[in-house]
Amino acid sequence: MRRIILVGYMGSGKTTLGKALSKATGMMFYDLDWYIESRMRKSVSQIFAERGEEAFRQMEYNMLHEVAEFEDVIISCGGGTPCFFDNMDYMNQQGDVVYLKATPETLYKHLLMAKVERPLLKDKSPEELIVYITQHLNERAPYYEQARYTLDVSVLDEYDKIKHSVASLCTMLNIEQ
C-alpha cells in the first residue's frame, strides 16, 4: 500500500507529473481540486465565489482526508492545501510527500501560459505577476519544505523533461516503473 502526495506552488507541475507518474507506475491519480469539483459539481472558482475561501478550505480539508485514505494512489494537492489546518502533518503521516520546487521565474513561465485559467492571476500584468508569485511562494515555502522529499523541477514543457522528472521521482521514492 502506497500513497504519494505532490505539493508545491501552482504551476509547479503537480498534475502533469502526477499523471505521468501514474502512467509509469500503474497507480491511480487524483487531483484534489478535480476531486472536489467532481464531488461538489462546481468549479473551485465557483465554490470560492459562492462560499468564500474559508468554506473552500474546510471542504478541501475534508476531501483530503477522504482521498488520503485510498491505497496505491498519487495525489496532487492544490497550491494552498499544505498551508491550512494541520494538512502538512496529516499528509506526512499518510504517505510520501514530495515538494515540487521551482523558482519564481519557472513558475512565472508556466503560469503566464495558463493565466486566464487562474482567477487570482488573470488581471495581473507580467510585472505584477512575478512580484505576486515571489511573495506568495515565500509565504508558502515553509509549509512546502515540511515534505519528506523535494524534487527540483524545471520547465516541464517537453516530454523528455517530464519523463526525466518521473524517473527521478521513482528513484527518490524507490518505485519500480
Structure commentary:
The protein is of the alpha/beta class and 177 residues long. 55% of the residues lie in helices and 13% in strands. The protein has seven helices and five strands; from the N terminus they run βαβααβαβααβα. It has helices at 14-25, 32-40, 44-67, 87-94, 104-113, 126-144, 159-173, and strands spanning 3-7, 28-31, 73-76, 96-101, 149-152. It has a five-stranded parallel sheet with strand order 2-3-1-4-5, with helices on both faces. α1 (14-25) crosses α7, α2 (32-40) packs across α3 (44-67) and α5 (104-113) packs across α6. It starts with a strand and ends with a helix.
Secondary structure elements and their pairing?
Layout: E1 3-7, H1 14-25, E2 28-31, H2 32-40, H3 44-67, E3 73-76, H4 87-94, E4 96-101, H5 104-113, H6 126-144, E5 149-152, H7 159-173
Parallel strand pairs: 1-3, 1-4, 2-3, 4-5
Helix pairs in contact: 1-7, 2-3, 5-6
